[in-house]
Amino acid sequence: MKRIAVVGGGVAGMTAALRLAEAGHEVDLFEAAPALGGRTKSFYDEEVDEWVDNGPHAMVGAYHSTLKLLQDIDATQYVNWQSSLTLSLWDKARGFFDLKAVSWLPVNIALIWAVYRLPGHDVSSVKAMLRLAMTMHNRNEEQTVQQWMDEIKAPERLVEDMLEVLCLGVMNEPMNTAKAKTFALVLALSFSSHRNAKMGWFNKPLSQALVAPLADKLRALDVNIELRSSIRSLDELNHDSIVLALPAFARNRLLGIKEGVATQSITNIHLWFEDKVELPNLMQGMLDTYGQWLFDVSAMMNQENKLQHLCVIVSADESDKTQDELVTLVLSEIETMLDVKLPQPQKVRFIREKRATVLVREQKGVDLPGHVFDVGEAPQIGELPATIELAVLLGEKAAQMVHLSHENSA
Ligand SMILES: Cc1cc2nc3c(=O)[nH]c(=O)nc-3n(C[C@H](O)[C@H](O)[C@H](O)COP(=O)(O)OP(=O)(O)OC[C@H]3O[C@@H](n4cnc5c(N)ncnc54)[C@H](O)[C@@H]3O)c2cc1C
């Protein structure tokens, strides 16, 4: 048994601590904030009497490590899944339409059929989908998603209705800078089976659905959790091994490295209404608008006796408008979409996470002593983008690295 310090109490750090404690090590978990969770965080809002996530988190069935983790912490009941992939979309010209992969066809054929059936698409979209599939496995490191789409001559409509939506959603980056090699990996993984392609969402706030079950397991395994403990130097820790489960910018801060790290923001505009706003879908994609997704949080979480909570999500948000202007804008976009006059929201909460994700880039490694393992979010080109799944995988990797190093030194 070794003494291990895990720095960072987000999903990556909690997963690392869990797997290390399961392997019989004595683990100290250090978290700078007053609560565990990191970017999967919720806070209690007294005014609406509700636990509110900084932003709703969606998943896909291809998050296999996350699913295994949820099983291990007895939390699978907190995620609801589509029966097969459906993207419910809207634009001003065509109204509401669904990209729906029917489950009775093999997933790749179902997707091509789904695209063909979208309003405004024809055989040119089908051909482009085939070219996309055929070119997935040989993307180079420099190429952007936009360049890939130009190369396969993807029709504008296919890009707008599907590829741009997916690129923003999974990579949190516009197509003109997002890396094609990672996007190709995500498409290949997600569209390899119906099970992988379908989307899932938490039916309880993240604090209850993910963080509390993880924290309970950690306590049951005697992990020592130190909240409000910001580690400022490795010299503060005298453990056999140290795991750094921090996004690259926080790791650099701890190590005194001045170099910047490319990150991207996500904006969430939470809206609460007294009178019910009827929405056709739980997760509504919006095209050609500032708001990209409208989530009916109350319906997702089955909260019937409260104000209705909606959340507008904007990935890779680079708008320089004021918060008030953006709230007015999304309210008018929802009115146009639903063709109704919305009641005045009882409450609005504008949350922009400036460093929501570390972008996929060629990431420089850092020199560390042999007993320190860096598993923070710093996705390389061709690896998964920053997601819950990446965080879980990094946590698992930390435990394996520590294990191997102890075996080698034994
Ligand atoms: C608004 C928003 C929406 C998102 N939506 C999705 C989604 O729909 N699907 C999806 O898969 N992913 C989504 N993500 C991404 C996902 O939340 C993150 O990729 C994941 O939670 C990262 O976990 P982590 O443990 O690697 O990092 P973090 O959660 O950042 O954890 C790092 C922890 O380290 C702590 N820390 C920092 N410095 C120190 C220090 N010196 N000492 C001690 N502790 C320190 C921090 O306080 C933090 O708690 C979203 C993120 C945001 C912000």
Task: Describe this entry's structure for a reader.
With 410 residues, the chain is an alpha/beta fold. Helices cover 36% and strands 22% of the residues. It is built from 13 helices and 17 strands. Strands 8-7-13-14-15-12-16 form a seven-stranded mixed sheet, with helices on both faces. Strands 10-2-1-11-17 form a five-stranded parallel sheet, covered by helices on one side. Strand 7 and strand 8 form a beta hairpin. Helix 3 packs antiparallel against helix 4. The model has no long low-confidence stretch (mean pLDDT 97).
Task: Please provide a brief summary of the model.
The chain is of the alpha/beta class. Helix content is 36%, strand content 22%.
The overall pLDDT, averaged over residues, is 97
What is CATH's topology name of the largest domain? FAD/NAD(P)-binding domain
The run of helices and strands is EHEEEEHEEEHHHHHHEHEEHEEEHEHEEH
Major sheet details: 7 strands, mixed
Count of helical stretches: 13
- Helix and strand content put the structural class at alpha/beta
The helix fraction, in percent, is 25-40%
At the fourth CATH level, what is the homologous superfamily of the largest domain?
Answer: FAD/NAD(P)-binding domain
C-alpha termini separation: 12 Å
As a percent range, the share of strand residues is 15-25%
Cα-atom radius of gyration: 22 Å
Large-scale geometry? globular
The distinct bound ligands, ions and cofactors come out as: flavin-adenine dinucleotide
Tally of individual domains: 3
For this entry, give a set of tags:
single chain; 410 residues; FAD/NAD(P)-binding domain; 3 domains; seven-stranded mixed beta sheet; globular; binds flavin-adenine dinucleotide
